[in-house]
Amino acid sequence: MLLDVANQIFAPFASAIGPLMACAFVFAVLAWLTKGRAALADAKAAAGETKINLIMVLIDTVAVGPFLAVGMALLVGRLGAHGLQLDTTRLWTWLGRWPTIVLAVVLGDFFGYWRHRAQHSKWLWPAHAIHHSDTHLTWFSLERMHPIDRIGSLLDMVLLSALGMPTWALAANALVRHYYGFFVHADLPWSLGKAGLVLNAPLAHRWHHVRDVEGSGHNFATVFSVWDRAFGTFYQPGPCNAPTGVREDMGKGALGQYAHPIKVWLQSARTEELRLSS
């Protein structure tokens, strides 16, 4: 009995930590091959922020992820119940498994591009700023995300579900874009050469995370750079040595990160109330 209870408690941690450890090994090797001994100094400099990211991962695994999964399932169910989900089963059967997965990733990245641009708007930025607050950008920076920002990120899956995409295609889209997200956040000076004309590269995404608004207002896609190129938001002038992070004061530790957008929105509401009463 005790073993069963312990397994239920720790199983989510095991499912989360295992893949993260594998990614840590892969990106550590890539960093060493790319930067040599400098990779160790960079990892040491990022240790404090990495600790905060790890805390946020653990909190997400226990307190955020399960609720989002249940909420997503309920929302998808409501779409079908209200006739807001297309009956495209025959289309996916005709296309076959792999073309359907490719289409799911392409469409998911297209939806994600516009959702990400919305997250940079005035009202959504306070929550999304958490993701941008790492001053030492690493592959693990992908996991620095406020719960409110995670809720917004579900929009991609909701739209794919509304198109009648099968569950396995939704899962494949989530996995591909999530792990490719680790890649583009990695501290690697790679532009991918000619492949960068189609695929997003770590160098391009680093420009997205620079503190200068000119850079952070570009390169919104996760996988395909074609969306930024098509809609005029691609920006990759060369090697990126500009500082990353945000100018806002995020407070201390993970709690400061979680509290930041709430403080900003409350302050904005008070300011607007005073303006209207004056």
Task: Name some characteristics of this structure.
13 helices; 0% strand; globular; 67% helix; 278 residues; mainly alpha
Q: Compute the average pLDDT.
A: 89
For the sheet with most strands, the description reads: none
Count of discrete domains:
1
Overall structural class, as computed from helix and strand content, comes to mainly alpha
* Straight-line N-to-C gap: 64 Å
Give the SSE order as H and E letters: HHHHHHHHHHHHH
Q: What's the helix count?
A: 13
Give the percentage of residues in beta strands: under 5%
Into which percent range does the helicity of residues fall? 55-70%
Give a topology summary.
Layout: H1 2-35, H2 38-45, H3 47-81, H4 89-95, H5 97-119, H6 125-128, H7 147-153, H8 155-162, H9 167-185, H10 202-208, H11 213-216, H12 226-230, H13 253-277
Q: Could you please describe the fold and organization of this structure?
A:
The chain has 13 helices and no strands. The chain is an all-alpha fold and 278 residues long. Helix 3 (47-81) packs parallel to helix 8 (155-162) and helix 5 (97-119) crosses helix 9 (167-185). The protein is 67% helix and 0% strand. It has one domain (2-277).
